[in-house]
Each structure stands twice: as structure tokens, then as C-alpha cells.
Write a structure and sequence with these properties.
single chain, 8 strands, 246 residues, Rossmann fold, alpha/beta, 12 helices, 40% helix, eight-stranded mixed beta sheet, globular
Length: 246
């Protein structure tokens, strides 16, 4: 599959490496130009390109950019055929990203992203910590394989996203349409808690739309007290503690 990836934060960079290693043709772009990611492309086997090239003639597009940088992408994606899945890995943290009024009022994150982009999205890899994504991939059938939820309204796009999640070494769990994707947003038990398929499916039933933003902010407040010294295990413990799961 030919995949365009926009953004090389912790999640984006790991997806470049994993999907390239899985045999996919990966085009990667950032906001600073292909010359700034030449080393990553060389190491991973991906191709560093411009943003326009990354979304042209591809089978799927993965957006791994902060929420605040979504609106400018509308023009970039305007010529992309409707049948090409756009996969959103973003999460909203007001203490990190600044406040977005609609999201503070309770709008589902990926619905807001769809409005900014002017097209549907499928949500995947948002509910996994970068360190977990980097280190926890396991062969299909491994009983300890971590599960990652995928949500989207288009069945074909959701299937493609789930196939790509599986290619990164994780079990994909169908989390339903975008209207249900609040269950995999920050502050819920299925968000970044390293669960198996059975555990994740149970966690989705325990999601609480009213309390999740409060738990998200409480968890972020704790993480900020760590300064620059926290690691993936610290984040995992905080997420499990604020949601009391598993």
C-alpha cells in the first residue's frame, strides 16, 4: 500500500518506521521540507517528500499533527479523492494545545477535525502512547499483544486503518463510528492503558463522556509536575490511575 504521512512527532515517526518495515511504500512530509527528514527517510526506507506530494496518488493518508495545525490542511487535502482514507491520530489536551471552544463544549474531537478538513476522517493510533507503539508490537496471535481501537463512519476506510494497525504489530479493535469515538478520547479507560482485545472492548463500555475531560486534565496536571523526567511507564501509570482501569 502507498501511504502518505504528514507529521513526524513521536507517533508519526514511529509509524514511518513500522509501516515501512512492514513493506508499505511510505511518503513522509513535515512542515519544514523534505531535506530536514532525509535521515529518517534513509534509515526507515521511506521517501521524504513535500506535503503536496505526500497526499498525491496514495492509498491512505495519516495525519500525525497537533490539533491546532489541522485547519491549514484543508486546502492541501481538497484535491484528494473521496475514497482515500484520511486517518487522524490527534488528541486534544487544552493544557498543551490551548483551548478550542467547540471541544471544550463537548464536541467529539474527530468531528471537529472533519469540519476543519472538510472531509471525513478515521481515528486510529490516538489511543496508544508513543513508547508503547514503539516497543510493544508483537506477532499476530501473541496472547500479550496490545490492542488499538479504530473508529470511523466509512467501513472501507475503517478496514484499511485496521489493516495498517495490525501491520504495526497491534490488534485492531473496531470502535464503531465517529459518533462513538469519544470513547477512545483522552481520559477514558481505553485511552493509552495498554490493554488486550478483551480488556479494550470492556474498557470501551466503561467510557464516561462527562468525566473524561476532567480525568484528562487531572492526568496532564500530574504529568506536568514531572518536568522533563517522565517516561512511557510514568504516563501509563497516570492514565491507568485517573481512569481506574485496568
Amino acid at each position: 500500500m502507498k501511504i502518505g504521512i504528514l507529521g513526524i512527532g513521536f507517533i508519526g515517526e514511529t509509524l514511518v518506521r513500522k509501516l515501512s518495515a512492514a513493506g508499505h511504500a511510505v511518503l513522509v512530509a513535515n512542515s519544514r521540507g523534505p531535506e530536514t527528514i532525509a535521515d529518517l527517510a534513509h534509515e526507515s526506507g521511506a521517501t521524504a517528500v513535500t506535503a503536496a506530494e505526500a497526499v498525491s496518488n496514495v492509498d491512505a493518508i495519516i495525519l500525525s499533527v497537533p490539533m491546532a495545525k489541522m485547519p491549514p490542511l484543508k486546502a492541501l487535502l481538497s484535491e484528494v479523492p473521496a475514497g482515500v482514507p484520511v486517518i487522524d491520530t490527534s488528541n486534544y489536551y487544552p493544557l498543551r494545545d490551548g483551548h478550542i471552544v467547540a471541544l471544550d463544549a463537548g464536541q467529539i474531537e474527530s468531528r471537529w477535525v472533519e469540519e476543519q478538513l472538510g472531509r471525513p476522517v478515521t481515528k486510529a493510533w490516538n489511543a496508544v502512547l508513543a513508547g508503547t507503539l514503539r516497543k510493544n508490537g508483537k506477532p499476530k496471535g501473541d496472547a500479550a499483544r496490545t490492542a488499538i481501537p479504530v473508529a470511523g463512519d466509512d467501513a472501507d476506510a475503517r478496514r484499511i486503518a485496521m489493516e495498517l494497525v495490525e501491520a504495526t504489530g497491534f490488534d485492531a479493535v473496531d470502535a464503531g463510528g465517529i459518533d462513538e469515538s469519544w470513547r477512545i478520547q483522552t481520559g477514558n479507560p481505553g485511552y493509552c492503558t495498554e490493554l488486550t482485545v478483551a480488556q479494550l472492548r470492556h474498557a470501551l463500555t466503561l467510557a464516561d463522556r462527562e468525566w473524561a475531560p476532567r480525568r484528562r486534565d487531572a492526568g496532564m496536571a500530574v504529568v506536568l509536575t514531572f518536568g522533563d523526567t517522565y517516561n512511557n511507564d510514568d504516563l501509563l501509570r497516570v492514565n491507568r490511575a485517573v481512569t481506574r482501569f485496568p
